[in-house]
Amino acid sequence: MRVKRGITSRKRHQKLRKLAEGFIGRKKSCYKIAKRGVEKAMLHAYVGRHQKKRHFRQLWIQRINAGAREHGLSYSKFIYGLGLCKIDMDRKMLADLAYNDPAAFGIIASKAKQSLTVA
What we know:
Helices cover 76% and strands 0% of the residues. The chain is an all-alpha fold. The radius of gyration is 26 Å and the shape is rod-shaped. The protein starts with 5 loop residues before the first helix and ends with a helix.
């Protein structure tokens, strides 16, 4: 008894072509070429997900630095002062405060500045 595999391979090819939708030329229609394109796209997507985290952290640090400098502190002294006065906030929350609520960020910055003068 022989097994005909036309249906399964066609389904596999269709699934891959579905992932290649939006590609230009034979990259979306030829299985062999589409397979290479999809693999490369997935590799870039994997790398991009990690770069996204890196870029957001850079943005948060820039916003915190800008907010801290308005209150006469550098970024590193501000973070060090937060550690001394036991304020445990992550950079995402601090950046959000610096961007959207400068008054609240000013209170935190003044506490950090006070802890630096005491130490």
